[in-house]
Write a structure and sequence with these properties.
By secondary structure, the chain is mainly α. Helices cover 70% and strands 10% of the residues. Strands 1-3-2 form a 3-stranded antiparallel beta sheet.
């Protein structure tokens, strides 16, 4: 089962509109915060558990130098701690400091409250079904990206089959 091209095009437009709306909401909610949006994103991912900087850069889709600058800023703010990786002394593991954990909890709480106010005309079923669809979309996109990177997509298999005869 696949999605028709016209439906996919309309979904692309809806996602684009959602991105713009989210950017506006995010910018509004970021006003007055000491950590900018990029730093908040890095903080969120580090808050999911100890991680190496290289893994985090890959996950965020940023270069190592860009991530290094963000981590240095978060360290200067006392939000992130770097320690040697016990499995590889040359690598570093990142984790939130207690202050970083408090900051992340505050940001999550603030964003949840803002979103709840924006969705005042929604009910729990609306929110739950939208969340489920966003999760499904995210999972499909991530799987497609991994498949393309590993060369296991239907398109690449068809191309490989035609090359191999």
């Amino acid at each position: 089962m696949s999605v028709a091209p016209a439906t996919a095009a309309e979904l692309v437009n809806q996602i684009f509109d959602l991105q713009r709306a989210l950017r506006c909401v995010t910018m509004e909610n970021a006003k007055g915060q000491e950590a900018g949006l990029a730093l908040q994103g890095v903080l969120k991912f580090i808050g999911e558990g100890q991680t190496r900087a290289t893994h985090l850069a890959e996950r965020l889709g940023v270069s190592a130098p860009v991530l290094s600058r963000h981590i240095a800023e978060l360290e200067d703010m006392g939000l992130v701690i770097r320690t040697p990786d016990p499995a590889d002394g040359r690598a570093q593991v990142l984790r939130l400091s207690p202050k970083g954990e408090q900051k992340l909890a505050y940001l999550v709480e603030r964003r949840a409250a803002a979103l709840a106010s924006y969705l005042a005309d929604w009910n729990e079923d609306d929110a739950a079904s939208t969340g489920a669809m966003i999760s499904k979309l995210t999972a499909s996109l991530r799987k497609s990206i991994k498949d393309r990177e590993s060369g296991t997509t239907h398109e690449s298999n068809t191309l490989q089959e035609s090359i191999n005869g």
